[in-house]
Amino acid sequence: MNIELLSIGDELLIGQTINTNAAWIGQEMSLIGARIVRTTVISDTTEAIQSSLDSIDSNTDCIIITGGLGPTKDDITKHTLCSYFNTRLEVHLPTLKKIEDYFFKRNRPMLEANIQQAELPLNCEILNNNYGTAAGMWFEEKGKIFISLPGVPYEMKGIMLEEVIPRLKEKFSLKSIYHKTALTQGIGESFLAEIIYNWENSIRSNNLGLAYLPSPGLVKLRITSYRGEEDKKIIDAYFDELKNLIPEALYGFENESLTQVIGEMLRTRKMTIGTVESCTSGLLASQICSISGASDYFMGSLLTYSNSLKISLADVSPETLEKFGAVSEEVVKEMAIGGRKKLGVDCCISTSGIAGPNGGSIEKPVGLVWIAIALPTKTIVKKFQFGDNRERTVQMTVSSALNYLRYELETT
Amino acid sequence: MNIELLSIGDELLIGQTINTNAAWIGQEMSLIGARIVRTTVISDTTEAIQSSLDSIDSNTDCIIITGGLGPTKDDITKHTLCSYFNTRLEVHLPTLKKIEDYFFKRNRPMLEANIQQAELPLNCEILNNNYGTAAGMWFEEKGKIFISLPGVPYEMKGIMLEEVIPRLKEKFSLKSIYHKTALTQGIGESFLAEIIYNWENSIRSNNLGLAYLPSPGLVKLRITSYRGEEDKKIIDAYFDELKNLIPEALYGFENESLTQVIGEMLRTRKMTIGTVESCTSGLLASQICSISGASDYFMGSLLTYSNSLKISLADVSPETLEKFGAVSEEVVKEMAIGGRKKLGVDCCISTSGIAGPNGGSIEKPVGLVWIAIALPTKTIVKKFQFGDNRERTVQMTVSSALNYLRYELETT
Prior knowledge:
The structure is a homodimer of 412-residue chains.
Chain A: E1 2-8, H1 10-13, H2 20-31, E2 35-42, H3 46-54, E3 62-66, H4 77-85, E4 89-91, H5 93-106, H6 112-116, E5 119-121, E6 125-127, E7 136-141, E8 144-149, H7 153-172, E9 178-185, H8 189-195, H9 197-205, E10 209-215, E11 218-225, H10 232-245, E12 250-253, H11 258-268, E13 273-277, H12 283-288, E14 298-304, H13 307-314, H14 318-324, H15 329-343, E15 347-353, E16 368-374, E17 379-385, H16 390-411
Parallel strand pairs in A: 1-2, 1-3, 3-8, 13-14, 13-15
Antiparallel strand pairs in A: 4-5, 6-7, 7-8, 9-11, 9-12, 10-11, 15-16, 16-17
């Protein structure tokens, strides 16, 4: 089944509202095996709506329209649909009753504009809105299905889940799509593509889809089967193979975050954690604490931005600092070991780097970062080079440190 | 000037990525007085791109295409544009040189796919990408302007700001809109609207526009004049008036961040700063350090998530902790005073709160936060209640702490 979305609203075009409705509908439709082929965002004018309806692709089976059904004057979707389908509005008594109840319950006055919301096209099936006053509409016209929903996210979602999705499943007896997504950190998209070249070709030759979904420092790899659940085993086998190809990069599946993965590992191992941060200046700790329940394993941190605090708080020796400089293997190692002791934790991650844009030199260019992890039995250290964007370097340091710890805990 | 956006990517259609690019471009275009008339999101296939190019409205002056320019195989925008414009790809030497430099600086191997990124259509002007390897393209064909940009947000934004917007302004000699934006923190949109009711009416009666641009914890107020710079003085006078109406909330103008405002204040006062954080767990410090040059005034922090570290690191007395609990006026005050001493700074901010979703009680509900600031001459403390969303509470604590310090430094 091919679906087009039509999102109506000037607030979307000028960027005052981000179109999260389209993303949510896209996710829900993928899950039932329907395919969104196009999303169009337009202004709330009769002309724009009319012209979009006229340009629907002939292969489209269903059009989901959101927005333009509220009680204010710029809402004209309903009138435009009437003229498009050559029908007229009439008061729909059950809807009028619902709107009256809605205002009565909230003890608020009902306005003329609200009464008009009960006027609905004659040729449609009414979709119940249990979350507001604008009813949804289901038209079967011109060999296609047209669905019109309010733009307020929780009203739209309610009608979709309760009224639209069950009807679509029945109407199109949908075969289901099956997706699985692996999450990787630390290998850029192009380099990853070379490493997994043969693996990718094998996937495609099996009539499965592969998509690279990059975000700073992370690349998601999604395999899609249009044959549905029956390909689950073969896809799982591909991911097992991938895990062997890139064990240092692959940290999880689906919607897991690195922070969640590490949280689970620390919890099952009954280990506590802390950080000693210089270039990340607290972002690493705040990431670890971003999930509820982090106080089970996270104790605290020392943010030693100045050299004197590296000495007084993290027990870095003044001689090491003098001899190797703050951004060095030796100092970051002493930071992790000193922090582990001072914070009384099992595991301490330390970071020191040159975030830039200033402070670089030939031997220590902007983007150079050292990360150390002090564990009960050993301390490990790794060098990174992240380039010259300050914000990105800090983010990459955080995700690299978390993934470095994940790999270390997993393999020891 | 009428603009259409074309966002390419299956990840957008299936909702794995939310189309924040379209919202950002919409905002930027509004600022220069251009109008987004339609945004279309399509799949990364030749057919979909081709068909969208064919259905561009005749009144559209400019088409901005994002996505589909990365180095992996599912990126086909460039080839489709070549066939649409009846031209071919050729290696663009300056771009090749830039890509080589990019990999050389990062000490990473350059791959065949990256070299191919330097192959660009012959009929376009190349738009410099200072943030990645995919160049932007500017075509003037068929009486319209076509702009193709990578989909990675920070690369797209960089090229838009540095290359596209200046060219669009010149090309279309856009009638000058004059905007000025005031930045406020700590007052919700509806409450703010009540406080500034008369001020707002006076603005509107002067034929100026006022927009509320809310984001979590912050509300921007933008005054717009369609008469241009000539209204600068009258708009400045309105903002002077606003500063008197809401001195605790109004912290700056235009694109200043609270962090920048505070950085400047500390630098001119030659003061140093540090933090002792519990519920914000490093996010406050990382915000202060997010701007280059922060090492001039930021020394370091103690993240005392556990009670034992509040005692051992920040010198909070065990009796105070026992008697009042970690989230209390007394403890947060001792944290700030202890941290000021331990970190050797002029000014120390401390935070302690219940971020949730668990850990609340009737006396201390989820969302309760205490913030203290220890200064050379005094220590001040304030209580906040932020509701039950963990992430929002942490963010609100950070912005409230920064704004509290800003107001204190400004008024003493």
